[in-house]
Design goal:
Elements: E1 13-16, E2 19-22, H1 23-27, E3 31-36, H2 43-54, H3 56-61, E4 64-70, H4 74-88, E5 96-98, H5 103-107, E6 131-136, E7 142-148, H6 156-169, E8 174-175, E9 186-188, H7 194-201, E10 205-208, E11 211-214
Parallel strand pairs: 3-4, 4-5
Antiparallel strand pairs: 1-2, 3-6, 6-7, 8-9, 9-11, 10-11
Bound molecules: benzoic acid.
Benzoic acid binds next to helix 2.
């Protein structure tokens, strides 16, 4: 069974480029993004990790820790980080987990349907993870997940936008409309009637009885 929204993200202890990580303790009171990639030293992955490195100040502003994972070793991750930093002109100083034993890939459903596990002589080529992303809240619950195939690099600007939307709507009766970006109007949940919604969020822009916008309570 795959992980679902609001499931508790599986806790684990793993080796990483920053030493041993106990996942829930490492998240602490932050949000976290855990994202897998197929292989170290591959072209698309290098552009993705470069994009994550360049966004470091944005993750920081959002109290969000990022952590990569693949079935390669810490030793490979450390060497590959040099390429990422040189390519992106930004330090890749977030941890990357060594999941050579596939514990995490299996717990987080990061392996493709046809992954192959020979009984002997397994290499990362037999069991590459796909491009899976989870946004996890400070309560360790899964808030968002997405999975891209190996051939399609992710849009980390969209992941940042989705993180903004998750944080905007966490624990409040709000939702964000299609293509929302911070500063645009938000949708007030139907759990509030008009009077309660206006008392909480100010004048409503009522497009339909069930579609009521309020100013972004930034
Ligand atoms: C890449 O990152 O370029 C890649 C990795 C595995 C399979 C295909 C592409």
């Amino acid at each position: 069974m795959s992980l679902r929204i609001n499931d508790t993200a599986p806790d684990f202890t793993a080796n990483s480029t920053e030493g041993e990580i106990r996942f829930h303790d490492w998240i602490g009171d932050s949000y976290a993004i855990i994202f897998s990639h197929p292989r170290d030293f591959t072209p698309v992955c290098t552009t993705e990790f470069g994009a994550v490195a360049q966004l470091a100040p944005e993750w920081e502003k959002r109290n969000t820790k990022v952590i990569g994972v693949s079935v390669d070793s810490v030793d490979d991750h450390q060497k590959w980080k040099r390429d990422i930093s040189a390519f992106a002109s930004a330090p890749a100083d977030f941890p990357i987990i060594d999941d050579t034993d596939l514990t995490l890939s299996k717990a987080y459903d990061m392996l493709p349907a046809e992954f192959y596990l020979p009984t002997e002589g397994r290499t990362p080529a037999h069991s590459a993870t796909v491009r899976t992303v989870y946004i996890i809240g400070p309560d360790k619950k899964v808030r968002l997940s997405l999975t891209y195939p190996m051939s399609v690099g992710r849009n980390f600007a969209e992941i940042l936008r989705a993180l903004d939307a998750v944080q905007k709507t966490d624990g409040v009766p709000l939702a964000t409309p299609a293509n929302w970006v911070p500063g645009q109007d938000v949708i007030v949940a139907l759990s509030l009637d008009d009077a309660a919604a206006e008392a909480k969020y100010g004048t409503l822009d009522k497009k339909l009885p069930y579609l009521r916008f309020a100013k972004d309570p930034a």
